[in-house]
Every structure is written in C-alpha cells, then in structure tokens.
Amino acid sequence: MAIEKKNILNRLYLLAGAMFLFALAITYKVIDIQFIQGDFYKEKAESLTVKDFVIKANRGNIYSSDGSLLATSVSRFDIKMDAVTVSKENFEKNIKGLSKSLSQMIGKSASYWENYIRKGRKTDSRYMPITRNLGYNDYLKIKSFPMFNLGTYKGGIITEQRTVREHPIGKIAERAVGYDDGRGRVGIEGNFYEFLRGKNGKRLKQKIAKGQWKPLNDNNEVEPIDGKDVITTIDLDIQDVAHHALLGQLQKFEAEHGTVVVMETKTGEIKGISNLGRNKEGNYYERLNYAVGESHEPGSTFKLMSLMVALEDKVIDTSTVIDTDDGTYKVYNRTVRDSHRGGYGKISAGRVFELSSNVGVVKIIEKYYKENPQRFIDGLNRMEVGYKLDVPIKGEGVPTLPNPNDKERWFGTSLAWMAYGYGVHITPLQTLAIYNAVANNGEMVKPRFIKEIRNQNNVVKKYEKVVINPKIASQATIDKMKVLMKNVVKKGTATNIYNKNYELAGKTGTCQTEYWTDNTQYIASFAGYFPADNPEYSCIVVIHKPNKKIGYYGNVVAAPVFEQIAHQIYTKTPVMDEVRGYKRSPEIIVENFDSYNVKANKKYETMPNLKNMNGMDAVALLENLGLTVVFKGTGKVLNQSLKAGQKFDKTKIIELTLS
Questions:
Q1: Distances (CA, A) of 137 to 43, 142, 627
Q2: 3 state SS of 123
C-alpha cells in the first residue's frame, strides 16, 4: 500500500513538473511573440488585410504622320458566373430571361444556356465561363440582362476587365507597328516601349467583407504616369495603297511571301511598309518584318552597285562596249547565262544595265577587278554596301559580302557571282537605302520610322533626318545611273510599266533561290524611285517564290506593284512638274493631332461634332464613350447619324459616312 501511494506521488510530481515546463514554454512563446517577433507578426497580419494594389498606367497611342490612330489601348471584359450565390427565388424567377438574352447576344439556343447554367448550379460551380472579349458597350448590355442586373452577389455576375492593344486600321502595317506583350517586343511597340508604357502607380487598400477591398488614404500612394504617344512617319493613304498592291500581286502569283517599302527621298521617312506571308490556308497576313529582317541574295538589283563601283573607279564609261557573245560566259567550271537566249552581242555598258545582262556585268567586273578583288569590295564599302543601317527596329538582317582574305570562303567564282547579286546577302531596306541615295543625288539618309514622341500637346523628343553618307559617289556617276535607271523603264527590262505621264526609274531583279535543290525557286524584285526627273519617293518590292507556271521575272511579278503605287499616288495629277503628292506641312499634322487630343480628353454629355474628323479617330472617340459605331467608306467624316449636340443613348448604334 505504501509502495502504491509512493508511485502515485511520483506520478503527481512528474505531472506537475511537466505542467510547469509547459507553462514556462507558453510564457516564453508569449514573450517571444509579443516582444521579440511582435513586429513580424503584426506585419504579417496586416498583409492579410492591407496591401498595395497596382494602378496600371495607360499605354501611349501610336499615330500615323497625319494624326490617325495606328495603335491604341481599349478595355475588354470577360464574363463569368457564380451559379451558387444566387438565391433560389431569384434564380428561378430570372433563369429563362437570362438564357434568352444570352442566346440573342452570344448565340446557341436559350435551352442550351438554361441547361448549362442549371448544371453549373447543381455542381456548385462558382466560376462558370459565359463569354469573353466584350467591348464596353456589350459589357453594359450584358450587365442589364435578367439576373445579372441584380449585381455580383444577388445575380452571380463576375466581371474581369483587362486592357488590350488594338489597331484601328486592322492588319495593315501590323508587323511594323508591332507589339510589346508575352510574345516579346517587336516593331515600333517593342522598340519604343519605354516611352509607350508609362509608369504604374500604387494604392493601399484594406480588405473588408466578402473579399472586397477599400482604398485607404495613404501618404505613400503613387499616381500612375501615362505613357507617351509615338508619332510615326507612316502616311495612311500610301500605306493602304502599298498594302493592297502587294497583296493583289501575291495572290495573283501564289507567292510565298513579299514586302514593299515606300520611302520619302529627301528625308528617309518611311511612308508605307507592308510585309505579307502566306499561311497554310493560303491567306496572307503580316507574319514577319521581311523588309528589315530578311537578308538574302538580291540578284540583278545589285548590278546598280557593281556598275557604280566601275564608273567611280573610271575603268569604264557607260559607252564602253562589252561583248556578251551568245549570252553565256564560262567562269572556271561554272557558266554565267543571260535570260535572253542567244545573248545581245556587242553592247554598251549602259545597255548591259538596261537589259540586265548577267554576262555583260560579270565581264566588266572580272576584267578590271580579277587581279585585285579587294578593290571592288572597297568600292562597295565606300557606298555603304555591306553595313547595317541600325534602324530602331529590332532584328535587322546582317548584310554580308564575300571577302578575298577569307581563303576558306573565297572561291574563283566569288567575284563573278557577286557582280550580279549572288553570294552576297542584303535586306530589302538596305538595298532601298542605296537606290534612294542615287535618287537623292548621292546623299544617303537613314530610313526613319518615327517623327516625334509627344506627351499630350508637348513634344518630348523629335527625330530629325540622319545622313549616313553625304555622297556615296561622284555627281557624274550619280547622273549616269539616273539616266540608265530611267532607260530601264523606257527601253529596257521594265517597259511594261512605262507611262509617259509619270516617268519612273528603277531596276528589275530576278534571282534564283534554292538552286542547290532539285526545285529551284525565284525571288522577283524591283527597286527605284519616282518621278524619274524629280524624285520624291523611292520604293522597293520583293516577292519570294511565285508560282513558276504563272511567272517569276522581276518585271512581271514585282514591277507592277511599284507602278501601281506610283500611279495611285499621282493619279489625280498626271503632269509631273506640278505633282506634290501627299506632302503635308508639319503645321497641318500638328493641328490635326492637337484637334483630336482636345476632343479625346473632353467629357461629353451630348454627341460631339465629328464632321471633317479623320474616320478612325472618330470611331476611337465614340467607342471610348461606350458607343457602338458602324461606318461606310474611308477618309474623313461626312455625315453622322446622330447630330452634334443631341443627347446620345449608349444602346443605340451610331452610323458614320466617310469620304
């Protein structure tokens, strides 16, 4: 009995000791939490109820040179549904009305929607997808549907808003305008993102009931800084002409892809650029920026550079006689051939260029540079051939010229093949810069895509003309090449595009590609400028892999695109001496830009006066007011269905008639 009592006492002592240690541990933890780690746990608790929310900055717009919108940010709405939160009474009262409304707006039958929503309610779905990518007007409409009009908690509607980038002119110039998102940074959007993005702000909010957050007054609150606007050099009229001229020819010849660039001669401003590639379904879209990024063998358009080197070195003149024999010429174990069977016999160096004789130009370069090929390379380098332009668009293709010092890659045929555009690689834009320099009396200017950066009405940064080389060749050589390029169209390989009302100048190119396979393909090109005697614009057209059964020569495939662009620019003024094309004074551009900015930043209770406003700007203005717009035509606003000053109804459609 005494032993048992002793054991009980021992257990009590042990239990008391354990309880003492436990109490001691609790006391220590309380002290630790309250005094040692108090700040940490306080911050952690606050982080669950108070946190900073990012306030997104508005991204800047991208405009054409005349103030038309090329890219802007708009709100898009995704709609989901919490099928559980709606009371039974409200659900049964409104389900049929909601289903009918969804059917009319989205499609599918009313019974489909009723079954879909009932099934979601039965399976306790709290995040059912309904529709996505709605514009503001449709978002307001769907909020008014039965059940949804009861709000988030009574009606179960869940709205997710996001900002997306849209191009008001559609797919035209899409690749040049580019993007800055999860796909990367491309084009103007990608390369000028520091200006366009702006700077996000932040606001402190406190969590309240049902997962909602209430803003708190906070000294650390940072307001967002909106992005700046980028004004491009793109002329919307010329861009539209270039795009459709290229598209039509690609479709006609079932080509793989192609590019066209129109540049203002004196300034280097890019007025139009289109890059179209074909998908598996046979449709064309802005796939890659071929003009800037695709370095390839140019073929006969390179003969301009070859002949200019020879003229500059004074080893020939345009009257120098060249014997093209029967149109074939052996260089080691390979044969150079002219496209004209039987050759041209004895012709001048000028006619070699005009008729695009491969044999003729190879004989010239071989005769005078074979013993010292580096002299020929140096002549090309003096004209900036073989160098990048360093344009502000990422991904510029690297030009390459064979080098006689590279013994592993320099062959006995290298000089001859280079003379007529093989074995060298150059992008369409780099080729155009050389042709533009000839048109510009030897001054080589950098191709320019941007005019200025603006912050509302203030110019933040202005981009001026950049001269790469003040004189790529002597005036004598320039003058001779101008005559020859004019003759190419008048009596050479491009007579099919000759028009006495607006004389053109340029050079055709037909280059073989994939000639190392059993299925040789072709690249058709044309580079030049217009008007021939007083150049205002230079232009290059390159079309890859046309259907050989339909046609593949540069004069047939590429030159008509060039001619169509020139014709459409000058169609209203056939007398060339009086043509001024689409030249616009900077004052008019700034006036149009400022006019739109004033209207866009104004709050409207009634319909604004849109007459004579650019159509795309008018559409953007009305859609930002939450209105639905349909329009007919292109250009400026002639008529609006709701007169200026009348109160607008966001459920009604506004119709615009454009010139």
A1: 43, 9, 6
A2: coil
Quote the tokens at residue 523: 């690249």
DSSP secondary-structure letter at 36?
I
DSSP letter, residue 197: S
CA 190 vs. chain centroid, Å, equals 9
Tokens of 244: 């459709």
Tokens at 394, concatenated:
């990422």
Dihedral sign for Cα 479, 481, 486, 490, please. Answer: positive
- Distance in angstroms (rounded) separating the CA atoms of residues 640 and 409: 66
Predicted confidence (pLDDT) per residue in 361-418, tens digit: 999 999 999 999 999 999 999 999 999 999 988 889 999 999 999 888 899 999 999 9
For residue range 147-191, what is the model confidence (pLDDT) as tens digits?
999 988 899 998 887 777 777 666 666 767 776 776 666 677 777
**pTM confidence score:** 0.72
Strands 537-544 and 467-469: unpaired
Label residue 342 left, alpha or beta by phi (over 0 means left) and psi (-120 to 50 means alpha): left
**Ramachandran area for residue 326 (φ above 0: left; ψ -120 to 50: alpha; else beta):** alpha
Helix axes 303-312, 475-491, angle to 10 degrees: 140
Q: Which residues pair with 328 in a beta bridge?
A: 337
Block residue for tokens 């217009």: 530
Instruction: Tell how far CA 437 is from the center of its chain.
Output: 26
User: Which helix (H) or strand (E) segment is 352 a member of?
Assistant: helix 349-354
Token pair, residue 98, equals 């909601």
Residue with tokens 């060039």: 562
Q: What are 603's two structure tokens?
A: 């709050």
Edge to edge, the sheet with strand 213-215 lists 50-55, 201-207, 213-215
Strand partners, 560: none
Residues 289 and 175 sit within 8 Å (Cβ to Cβ): yes
* Token pair listed for 358: 């491969």
For the residues of 225-264, what is the DSSP string, one character each?
A: BPPPEEEES--HHHHHHHHHHHHHHHHHHT-SEEEEEEEE
